[in-house]
Amino acid sequence: MKPLVYIVDDDAALREALSSLLRSADMDVATFGSVADFMEHCRDDRNSCLLLDVRLGGHSGMDLHAELKSQGCALPVVFMTGFGDIPMSVRAMKAGAVDFLAKPVRVEELLDAVNQALARDAADRTEHATLAGLRQRYQTLTPREREIMALAARGLMNKQIAAEVGTSEITVKIHRGQAMKKMQAKTFADLVRMAEALDLR
Amino acid sequence: MPGTLRSALLKAAIVLLTAAIFALDALTSMDSAIAVMYVVVVLATVHVWPTRVLAVTALCLVLTATAHLVTSWFGVVNSSLARCAVSLAAIGISGYLAHAGAQATARLLQREESLRLSRMQLAHVTRVTTLGELAASIAHEVNQPLAAISANGEAALRWLRRQQPDPQEVEHALQRMLADTCRASEVIRRIRALAQKGEATFAPVDLPGIIHDCAALLQRELASHGATLVVEVADGLPPVAGDRVQLQQVLINLLMNGMQAMEPRGGTLRLVAAALPSTHGDGVRIAVTDQGPGIPDDQCGRLFEPFYSTKPDGMGMGLPICRSIVEAHGGRIAAVPGGPGATLEVTLPCSRQAAA
């Protein structure tokens, strides 16, 4: 499946031109004239990124970026601007933009930035999928197994865990083995990393 | 042309009158100082040949003396001589006064002309200053189509160079490039029209077109100051005659003032153009309303005084120039007291009325 690039720019002519350019580079494109239009649109669950004009009539692209982040949307953003000033680009980069391009944008730069953003999105997606898998497996654990997994990940010995939860060392061992099996952890180190990823502390 | 016809008739009348006076004076022996009537000739001359008053006066003096010589057959008749002397004095004095008056009028006209020229230059300078203030947003306005043109060009090349070139995509890209070129030259046209310097020409103007051009020129600037422009132009506006550039200057000035009044919060600027209610005579009313702090009632009048400004870095020339432009068009400009925000309204007479 082709990657998807969302373009938000209030200038229809430029939107069309950029769309054609990105389509010629084998990408799917969805264009929006305003931030509101983009926010309304439901986003496809696929490799995608956002190409965003910094100054959109009345609503700055920066605000949109902040709003997206507050909504937990991790879509990588490439900014474009007609007034490429340094403070603005610094702000954009600090806010986590992939790149900041001055209009008229050079094609190679644009494609580079978009590809980079797509790559970042792909990486985010993989990470996200891994975490989702972990969560799913974690759901299958019994409350006792979860408790023991968390304590073990904190570095407690089986004996200490047994004292903590008030059971025998052998029961702890069984629960711990169950947890490792259900979490598909090959080694104990794997289990610790998973606990860390799941934020069990 | 009724003006030129009237002056031609007057010239003919002057010549006839002169001939008649001379004939009466020289050929009849009336016992009166008919030559005094040359005063009428001299005074009438002021209207048609203001620069030749002295020459005509001299001619009248010569004619009077000649008639006197003819009637008295070169003999000396005391009473006739006295009448002649009185006539000569009257003609001479009125000739001198008329000449002095004509000269003063000429000087006054010249001064008025130079005042008009300086006013025109001042209007031009403020126009160019305004364009300077708009430079950043105008640059953006030109940059935008250029950016689109270059992106379209690149896209067209890429579609052509693909393993299977896509002629339809190339065609679309080229069409968009042409449209963008038009757009860029349209921006340039608007700026050039405003920057031009020249005599004001009074011709029927397309008011909705002027308003549209102003809105297009300011759109970016307004947006970057957080101001939204709402334009309401009523259908079927009566025709207005005037100078396109000057009227645009007035509107731009009012809109920029409104925008600046709403800083830094921004807001909505409304420009409403409609025909005047018939009780107020034929004409058009254009009102610009902002959502700023408004104008205190006691300052409504002062706004149009030169060098009076409510802005810290204002020159105080914008509104006085607007007023001189609007008044030259036979219209009026005023701040409307009261109301949230400020409203400035311009009324322009319709061109049917102006021609009458």
Written overview of the protein:
The complex is a heterodimer of chains A (201) and B (356). In chain A, helix 7 (158-165) crosses helix 8. Helix content of chain A is 57%, strand content 14%. Chain A contains nine helices and seven strands, in the order βαβαβββαβαβααααα. Helix content of chain B is 62%, strand content 12%. Chain B has helices at 2-27, 38-48, 53-71, 78-133, 135-161, 167-195, 207-224, 244-261, 318-328, 351-355, and strands at 203-205, 227-233, 240-242, 267-275, 283-289, 332-336, 343-349. Chain B is elongated, with a radius of gyration of 33 Å.
Which key terms come to mind for this protein?
heterodimer; A: 201 residues; alpha/beta; Rossmann fold; Arc Repressor Mutant, subunit A; 2 domains; five-stranded parallel β-sheet; two-stranded antiparallel sheet; 9 helices; elongated; B: 356 residues; alpha+beta; Heat Shock Protein 90; 3 domains; five-stranded mixed β-sheet; 10 helices; 7 strands; 62% helix; nucleotide-binding (chain B); EC 2.7.13.3 (chain B); ATP-binding (chain B); two-component regulatory system (chain B)
Sheet with most strands: strand arrangement of chain A: 2-1-3-6-7
CATH architecture group name of the largest domain in chain B: 2-Layer Sandwich
Count of folded domains of chain A: 2
Which class do the helix and strand fractions of chain A yield? Answer: alpha/beta
| Protein structure class of chain B | alpha+beta
List low-pLDDT spans of chain B. none
Provide the number of structural domains of chain B: 3
Give the termini separation of chain A.
39 Å
Oligomer: heterodimer
CATH architecture annotation of the largest domain in chain A: 3-Layer(aba) Sandwich
Pfam family, one (chain B): HATPase_c
Protein name (chain B): histidine kinase
GO molecular function, one term (chain B): phosphorelay sensor kinase activity
EC number (chain B): 2.7.13.3
